Give the backbone structure.
Amino acid sequence: MILEKTQTHQRVIEQISVLNAKVDFMNDTALSNALTYLEEKGIPNNKNEEYKYCNIDSILKTDFKNIQQQFNTVSTINNLRLNDCLTLVVVNGNFSEKLSDKLVLKGVKLFSFNSLENSGKQLLTAAAKSNSDSFIALNTAFSGIGFHLKILKNEQTQIPIQILYINSASAESFVNPRNIIELEENSSATIIEHYINIGTHKVFTNFVSEKYLAQNSNLKSYTLQNETSLGYGVYTNQVKVNKHANYQNTTVTLSGRLVRNNHQVILSEDNCEASLFGLFKTSNNQLVDNHTLIDHQKPNCQSNELYKGIIGDKSTGVFNGKIFVRKDAQKTNAYQSSKNVLLSDEGCINTKPQLEIFADDVKCSHGTSTGKIDENALFYLNARGLGKESAKKLLLSAFANEVIDKIEVDSLKEIIESQII
Amino acid sequence: MITIKNLHASVEGKEILRGINLEVKAGEVHAIMGPNGSGKSTLSNVLAGREDYEVTAGEVIFNGKNLLELSPEDRAREGLFLAFQYPVEIPGVSNINFLKTALNEIRAYHGKNEITAKDFLALVKEKQKLVELDGKLANRSVNEGFSGGEKKRNEIFQMAMLEPTLSILDETDSGLDIDALKIVANGVNTLKNKNNAYIVITHYQRLLDYIVPDFVHILYNGKIVQSGGKELALELEAKGYDEIKKQF
Ligand SMILES: Nc1ncnc2c1ncn2[C@@H]1O[C@H](COP(=O)(O)OP(=O)(O)O)[C@@H](O)[C@H]1O
Ligand SMILES: [Mg+2]
């Protein structure tokens, strides 16, 4: 496919390179690949099938005309801390040791990108290839100073780790947070990636995370997006799952003018498992676009996806779920479901399951449903004395709870329960 | 308690109720019988406030208020209860939680404060016992996966919890076996007092052996064509609805 290339990327690069020093933790090949890729492909617009409903090129043109990279100082995070977690803080794309808790957990190590071990350097760009996607490329070339979080072999981390990404733009800005989460063999951990915005101006977050799950490891990962109407972002997760390992993610989007999630999971060995759950509620002119890819490469793996959307006003929701079942991946079990409630006539939801199956002994199913609030149920509740608002709330909570119930961190669950409906 | 005068209602331009007149006083039980499609459920739904139906003429005074001007929730808060012919399943909404919200909204409407958790639990226990509803059912999602009979019993359980002044039971007996029927009837008879009233809609005389009506009305083609005492039900049972159909 020939894409009409635009010059947006050049202007963005020019404007964001003002502040960024050379990212010397990236290897040179990755860097030059990234720039070549960007030069070749540019920023995707709606002529690109993958960005059909999410024309980021045009958004950068209209809403980020003048990127200035100016930020307010963030000096405290007290009320943003989840009380039952240890908190790591990333401010405007860069890891802040000062604001972060000391990682006193046994078996957990943290390396800033400025002091990466060799193993960390090797993981950087191994799963998120700089020549595979424009946003990964852009992030690679201008990556913030992120970190490599490593759970050591045989360690079962009991306390969840909250990674708080705070943006505080005081003029139009573009940030590129990045991290590596690595679970060594037989380890387990829970992490919460929590995005918030306390700035006064628009900010574009181009996030990239590479997650590596070694044999028999278990990662429960949560994503909470709450960047307000000044927040725009592309959030890329490249996850590689090894033999007998289990990856689980629940992504909840509470706010954000534009939220594009690219969540790609490679089940690279046999007997591994991935679950992706999502919940978003949109209003006004928001756009929330969830793109997932689960790549079954080897036999006996399982994947399970459930995405639910509540779409109000003139907002748009997108769910695009790709599942690849490679030739070797016999006995694959893949299940995908997308369910949506439209609260208004002007709201819009686009769902597209894409199953590409090259093995013959597999169980795959997918389903999608979109409807309005059930009027019969509403009337039933009203006829029992519940007011219109509380009846609606009850029905929407019931809809959302199927996803919320998957959340095992109480403080996180409470925030979501109190804000989603 | 309720006075219905010349009530006309239509759905999708089709007139279904063609001038209903009915007066129910506190302490009374009225039975409404009639063949399928005569408008019994339409009448129930119009009284409960379902918006699919358009009231084209007539008025309904309920405890001194103009019922037709009230929202469905306010009708319930004023003491009207409809046990649905086909109760809906609401996955994910707990029966008990929703009843607690309902009860509290009704209390708030009457300027009362919220019921305490302890009192609520005691009430649930008492009313469950009354309709012999399995505790597990009460805690599940509203009607989800309930059998036909369980749904009907759940309706009566909700009625018992909310203590309405006027209850309309729309074919609560259909789908019930004789034991369940007796339980439901016993529930109604226990709750019945001089301050409340019941409109019992049924197809068969069977239920009326257990819930004995003061008046029986025959609804046909959107009108009450005949009214009488409880013996009218027996008469109808003997003659069958064909006789009515011929007559009117
Ligand atoms: N929502 C509706 N839309 C269209 N027709 C309806 C609707 N509800 C009832 N009707 C029609 O009104 C008539 C009376 O129905 P109903 O009140 O359910 O009768 P009953 O309860 O006595 O069996 C029937 O002809 C039925 O088809
Ligand atoms: Mg009926």
